[in-house]
Request: fold
Amino acid sequence: MVFATDTAVEPQTDESYSATIQDGWDVVGNANGGYLLAIAARAMAAASGQPHPVALNAHYLSPGRPGPVTIVPDVVKTGRRFTTVRANMRNDSKELVTLLGSFGDVGALEGPMRIDAEPPELPAPEDCVRIDHHPSGFPPAMMGKIELRLHPEDAGFAVGKPSGQPLFRGWFRLLDNEPIDAFALLLAVDAFPPTVFNANLPVSWAPTLELTTHIRGLPEPGWLRCRFSTRFISGGLMEEDGDIWDASGRLVAQSRQLALTPRG
Amino acid sequence: MVFATDTAVEPQTDESYSATIQDGWDVVGNANGGYLLAIAARAMAAASGQPHPVALNAHYLSPGRPGPVTIVPDVVKTGRRFTTVRANMRNDSKELVTLLGSFGDVGALEGPMRIDAEPPELPAPEDCVRIDHHPSGFPPAMMGKIELRLHPEDAGFAVGKPSGQPLFRGWFRLLDNEPIDAFALLLAVDAFPPTVFNANLPVSWAPTLELTTHIRGLPEPGWLRCRFSTRFISGGLMEEDGDIWDASGRLVAQSRQLALTPRG
Reply:
């Protein structure tokens, strides 16, 4: 239960929450954005009294290094079905992430159904390309904390052969097949390499400015089937859209992030 | 300059901003979400000292009726390129909207370009279907404050003939061709009918829970070319994705909202 342990939060008497950015969740020294999101969302959910994030926005302010952090949630409105909470996560010297979210009980809502999309076709996990961490920092340390398997057509970037399409498809699960809850979905939406790495452009990193996640269902046990794609790289920015399906073929999360695409 | 006047904000000595929800921007009595967004964003931009919203999130808490409102912005971080601000908009009795955004100078960033999408093909504005307000409330009053022209294939819903596809394509501009700034783009992203109205489902309204907008460029003068679509209506929720291009064929805004889809 590495993920649950490494994202645990502890309530403090002043209504803030303490947590620790654990070692090994970083990309060249800075904690992964989805990992920080999961920690912050646990504190926000606790403050809201609701079990799940439904729509969660995060703006990334400073890189997070391993060590203690404090999350300060502030309940904006408690409604019948949703409670809206804003929060800041900071360490002893600066603000790391600021967030806003509506929390509720995913699955308690009802309505008609219509789906106009298919999960991505993927070879079986054992026929995909495992991305594991490497002491050089590429692939980054955090890949040692999860299991990520890329579609072979999208995996060449790691050996200098980008596909030419700003697209990553693949499987995601936690180590030891730890069950995936709504908070682990927040990790999954930022766990894949930036799509721009497959685009044959002079962009070597793509820091996230803003990331929004909608939790649309709670996953059945098993691998998540993931697709991240980008249509517009322009004006120094790109959007990256994520769709995540569970093992039963049901959409469980959508994400969109706005990332910077500095030349270099 | 109806839009500029009707979304104006006034700084108060306590660092809040006052504004007025003007008559006529409503959908059956409640102010349009994009209109509220534009008002709030003006106050947030003023507080940030930056000219434009770049990524802006809003969670809708209560319907907004015409009358005075107060916007209370709170600068979370002032950075070199972006300033991050959270804000609440309230009237004399309740919170209406809570927001979080990163503000900066759209167009000041640089990076490589790659576009993998085309603007929607539309008949000329004069060959599209003008949606104007009607005293009955359908189409709603706010349609009298803007010019909206729908693709004829998407316009049948208004006379009981939905297309069957959760899709709206059309042209948008302000009255008297008032110039469209970044704040008017915030109006545009919520100005079209809910996509579900074209889906042949028993859903008669789709209140917005959360709406995120990315401003990707400042539009050239002229009509905006807009496309709103939905892929997943499930579990009482749907996402609605918007892409907005300017008259020169450049993407200027993207939006995604999470809306409720109650049966009825």
Notes: Residues 2-105+119-260 of chain B form a domain with the Porin fold (CATH 2.40.160.210). Chain B has a mean pLDDT of 97. Chain B touches chain A through 59 residues (CB under 8 Å). Chain B has three helices and 17 strands.
